[in-house]
């Protein structure tokens, strides 16, 4: 018995939209990719943790220019703040994809979500370590 290929069982509309982006080149591809990135940030804004981190960055990034004594220190302080937001978006993407698969409990789903959460924790530890070291250096 012949089984249909996966792409033959999918609705045609989403496939066409995906293929359309892959067909784009140059400025058109860049503009569409930028639009998708903005949509991702908007979706992230709907997540409480990302929203809190983004709001904190409004204070922390300007503070990095006061706290850092060299451009390298400012870059590290700023990058540590942005790293947390990047990892949070990736974690949310993982959780969303897992939830899309189904609501039932599965060990592999839990494992994927736990690893995403661990990645956020590690990025927060990097952020805290960089900022504590910079504060210690500045105030000591």
At a glance:
It contains six helices and no strands. The chain is mainly alpha-helical and 140 residues long.
Can you put this structure into words, describing what you see?
The protein has six helices and no strands. By secondary structure, the protein is an all-alpha fold. Helix 4 runs antiparallel to helix 5 (71-101) and helix 5 (71-101) runs antiparallel to helix 6. The longest helix has 33 residues, at 107-139. The termini are far apart. Residues 1-12 have low confidence and may be disordered.
Task: Please describe the structure with a list of short key phrases separated by commas or semicolons.
140 residues; 6 helices; flat; mainly alpha; 0% strand; disordered N terminus
């Amino acid at each position: 018995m012949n089984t249909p290929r996966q792409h033959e069982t999918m609705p045609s509309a989403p496939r066409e939209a995906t293929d359309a982006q892959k067909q784009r080149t140059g400025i058109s591809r860049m503009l569409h990719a930028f639009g998708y990135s903005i949509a991702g940030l908007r979706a992230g804004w709907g997540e409480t943790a990302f929203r809190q981190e983004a709001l904190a960055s409004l204070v922390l990034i300007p503070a990095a220019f006061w706290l850092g004594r060299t451009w390298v220190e400012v870059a590290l302080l700023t990058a540590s703040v942005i790293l947390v937001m990047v990892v949070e978006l990736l974690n949310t993407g993982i959780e969303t994809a897992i939830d899309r698969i189904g609501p039932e409990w599965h060990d592999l789903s839990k494992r994927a979500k736990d690893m995403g959460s661990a990645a956020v924790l590690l990025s927060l530890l990097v952020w805290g370590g960089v900022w504590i070291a910079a504060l210690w250096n500045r105030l000591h």
